[in-house]
Structures are given as structure tokens and as C-alpha cells.
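Open question from group meeting: does this chain pack into something compact, or does most of it stay loose? Before anyone orders reagents, we agreed to write out a predicted structure and look at it together. Recording both the input and the output here so the notebook holds the full record.
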Amino acid sequence: MIQAPSWVPGTFVSRLDSDTREELMSLGRRLEFPAGTVLLRQGSLQTTVLVLTTARSSDLACVKIVLTAEDGHESLLGIRTSGDLIGDMAALSEQPRTATAKTCRPTAVQKISHGEFTAFLKRRPDAEVGIKRMLVDRLSQADRQRQEFIRYDGPTRLARMMVELADRFGRAGEHGLVVGVELSQREWGHLIGAGEESVRRAMRRLRDLDLVVPRYRDVTVVDLAGLRRFGHLKE
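C-alpha cells returned:
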């Protein structure tokens, strides 16, 4: 039996009223994918929309959004979770996909056709308002990131991002809270606007302060309260 999905606060689905949410999740079909699956590919002309939801394992969805430049260089733009939409921009604009979406843990989705999704938005004005709010939130988040790049140094930005991911995806481990998202140092750098060497130095500093224990492609937070203070975040 599949448990009721958990919608992360602040996501598109979490903001819908119960009737609208129920109708949305009745559209299309539910699919589950293992970690490492490409859900959407940059440049594709497909216009389906995916609603990220909770897998049978009860883990929140975790999907990396990656942009590939013409020279093949990849940049991690962000991470989406249960309640987020992906593919919405291509569906609304009817333009090619602007980025690739790849699962970083077992993830379930509700796959909805372009026609079903646009008809749903016409029937449910509150959902259309939710789409606009989501787009505004994305722009606001980009603005906040730019401000952080200016205001804080590398270790502080890294601490803030670790807290954000630990709060959303963290799971209890033997020595603390495992962040739960496998990221290379380059990917950490993409998220905080820093080069790999800067990320290495920042990791060492947080480790030396006994705040985190970095491991290959993952991090354990051993002092979450201390990491929040270091990142100038409220408890």
C-alpha cells in the first residue's frame, strides 16, 4: 500500500487546497524510478509535466536539475523535491526543455500530458495562480542567491546550503544527520557559486570546527545547531 504523499512546505502542490490537489494527482499516471534515472532531457520537445511525489520507500523525491552548455560543461542549477513540478516551463511555453532532470534517490512522479495539465489550469484558477507564484519564488530565490554570493564568504555559503539540504533531505546516521544528497565538490560549488578548490577549503574549515564530517559525495552534519550559527541562520 502506498502511503499518502508528503508535500514539502513551499512547493507548488503544498500550496493547493485539498480538492485542487486531489484533482491534480488524479491526472496522468504514477511512475517510480530508481536513483540515477533521467526524467527529462535538455533539448527534448516533449511537453509532459511531472509532479514529484513520495516513493514506496517513503523517501521524499530528490531530483537534480542540470544545465549542459554548448561545450559540454554541466552546471547544477538546483534540487527539486516532493511537491515540486518539473517540465512546467516547456509545457507552458511549448519550447524545448531547458535543462535535464535526474533522480538522486528512488523517486515517484505523476506524469501528466500537456493537454491534461493546461486544461487543469483552466479549470482551477487557484492552480494557475500557484504556477505564477512558483515562478516568482524561483526568481526571488535566484536574487537571494546572488545576494548571498556577495554578502557571505565560501564557508558561510556552504554551511547555509548544507543546513538547507539537511533540513529537507537529512536522515539520521550513526554520527549525526546525513545530508542525504550525493553531490560532488563541483556540484556543491555550483550551488554556492564557488570553485572546487574553494569548496575543498570550506569543507576543511567546517570539518576542523567539528561541524561536519565530509565523506565521498555525502556529508554528515554532527552539530546542526552550530552549523546554523556559523551560517548566520536562525535556530
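Observations to bring back to the group:
Residues 153-230 form a domain with the Arc Repressor Mutant, subunit A fold (CATH 1.10.10.10).
The mean pLDDT is 93.
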